[in-house]
Amino acid sequence: MVDFCGIELRHPVINGSGTFDAIAARRAFGDELLDEFPFSAFVSKTITPEPRAGNPPPRLWETPSGLINSIGLPNKGLDGFLADDLPQLAELPVPLIVSVMGTSHDEFSRLVDGVGGRDEVAAIELNVSCPNVKSGLIVGESPEEAKSLLGAIKPLTDRPLIVKLTPNVADPVPVAEAAAEGGADAVSLINTLRAVAFDPDKADRWLGGGSGGLSGPAVRAVALAQVHSVASSVSVPVVAMGGISTGRDAAEMLGAGAALVAVGTESFRDPAAGARIADELDAELARISG
Ligand SMILES: Cc1cc2nc3c(=O)[nH]c(=O)nc-3n(C[C@H](O)[C@H](O)[C@H](O)COP(=O)(O)O)c2cc1C
User: Fold this and answer.
1) What span, in angstroms and rounded, lies between the C-alpha atoms of 240 and 258?
2) Does the C-beta of 172 come closer than 6 Å to ligand 1?
3) Of residues 242, 124, 127, 239, the one with CA closest to residue 187
4) Domains along the chain?
5) DSSP 3-state assignment of 156?
6) What are the tens digits of pLDDT across the range 5-42?
7) Rounded to whole angstroms, how far apart are CA atoms 215 and 219?
8) Residues 6 or more apart whose Cβ sits within 8 Å of residue 194
9) What are the backbone angles phi and psi of residue 171, rounded to the nearest 5°?
10) What is the 244 CA–ligand 1 centroid distance (Å)?
C-alpha cells in the first residue's frame, strides 16, 4: 500500500490524464476491466468549465520513440462531466482524481467548487498549461501566477490539490516551489513538450491544431531530469510521468524522488500497461533492495 496525500493506493502506478479512457475501455472490455484495473488511482481527462470540441484533425503524429498530440482538450464541460462521466468513473475500483483547467481564477474556482464537494472525487489535478486570460501568462510557466492561483482556490476545497507542471520552462523548480508555497498538496510532471510535425508539401505544420505536445519514450530523460530537480527541491509528493513504459523506467523515477508514477502514451500501445508496469516495478524494487 502507498499513502498519497492521505489516499491509500494499492501500488504506485496511476495513469496520465487524457491517456486512458476508462469509460470507453469498460465498453470494450466489460466488467473485466474493473476486476483487473491497471492503475491504483484513475486520473480523468482534463475538463474545462464549458464544453470544448477540441482541435481539428489530424491530431496525432508519431515521431521516433514518441507521439505528438494536438487533441485540444475536447470535453463535455463541467456540467456534462458531473452528469454523464462522474457516475461512471465512480464505479471504478480505485480512487478518482479529476483533472481541471480554467483560463482565470473564476473558472478554476468554478471547477474546483463543482468537483471538490463530490464524495466520488478523492483529489483534484490542476492542469496549468494554459494562459490566464487576464495576464496572458501561462500559469504553469510563472511562479507568481501559480502561487496566486493556489491562493484563490485552496480555500475552496478540502481535497488534495495536485499541480501538473509543464516542462516548457527553463527550470520547473521555481513554479513547483511557488505551487507548494501556495498550498499545493502535490505536484505532477511532466506534461507534454511543445513540438510540431511539418508537412513539406503544404509548407505548413501538419497537425490540425498547429503545434502539439511530445510524449512517450522520447521525453523520458527530460522528465527524469525535471523530476529529480523538483523532488530535490519541494517537500510535497511528486507524481512522475514522461515516457514510462517499463518497471525499470518507473523505478528510476521513484529513485529520482517521485512518490508515484503515471503511465501515459504506453497505454495506447498496451491498455494493460499500468498493471504490467506495477508488477515489473515490484520485481525491480525487490531486486534493488535484495
Ligand atoms: C493523447 C494525449 C492526451 C493527453 N491529454 C491530457 C490531458 O487532457 N490533460 C493533461 O494534463 N495531460 C494530458 N496529456 C499529457 C499526459 O498526461 C502526460 O503528462 C504526458 O503524455 C507525458 O507522459 P507519457 O510520456 O507517459 O505519455 C495527454 C497526453 C497524450 C499523449
Assistant:
1) 6
2) no
3) 239
4) 2-54+72-194+215-289 (3.20.20.70)
5) helix
6) 999 999 999 999 999 999 999 999 999 999 999 999 99
7) 6
8) 168, 211, 212, 213, 214
9) -150, 120
10) 12
